[in-house]
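FW: tagging you since you asked about this chain on Friday. Here's the raw sequence from the shared folder, copied in full. Didn't touch anything.
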Amino acid sequence: MGGLLETILTVYKDYGGGSMTTVFVLAALLYLWLTEEKKEIRLTLVYLTAAALALFFFPLFAYVAMRVFLEPGVYYRILWLVPMGLVTAYAGARILSMIETGRRRLLAGLLIALLLVRGGSLIYKNPMVTKAENPYHLPEAVLSVADVMHVEGRDVKAVVPAELLQFIRQYDASILLAYGRDALVQGWNNNPLYEAMEASPVRSFAVTDYAKQQGVEYIVLRTGTPIVGTKPIDEYEFSYLTTADNYDIYIFDRAEFAQEKKAEYESLTDPGREDFYTHTN
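HL: got it, structure written out here
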């Protein structure tokens, strides 16, 4: 039981990150619990919010949830039931409404705003936030790779490096993937093709064999990826098509559109290209 409580507290702490948001929510909830008189507000913002929090921290519920319908790694999603922004904003508005003079109300509003700003962090300092490269707000490499693989009027199936997984289908839904973002979550991935793709070095037989088994028509590898095997990828029915934004794209020779695509990109194929292949016995 002690270990479960520790897990719950760790999840709650990680959910709040380095900000004071969760503290503000608890303070706002307590304030509304003591001062709010409207029954409908108490029901929706106070009682239901308190119930969601109580459920989250209740060990028996957490035990059942983590074993029946939620993985331990995503137990934090219970906190999505808590309308944190709404509760905090409403509590702040109630506090300001109780101040009679405009000047004091302005000063109190500035103080609350300052506390909220200081209690959080600037999102643009997050290393995962980057300046948009195009109107789609997606990495430019995603557009380049997807445009090469696109076949008008039909779906295609591809396997791509991990960093492209979450973006490809946002740009082109006709590109089906052998596995999705679940492969990036520890404990969720059970696809041997993902392991073959992310291995270093990549084994040519393994990646092409698993790709064929799963009906993949395109294999996309990072340019410079070391490849080992008794034969290069090209000799396992996946021909090099072209390179797009530092990604090498291979096409399945028996795909219905393979010859058309090869003819389209023939002029862009570099005959002197180095594929970083190493022969092994």
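FW: The chain has a mean pLDDT of 89.
HL: agreed, and The chain has two domains: 2-125, 140-279.
FW: great, closing this out.
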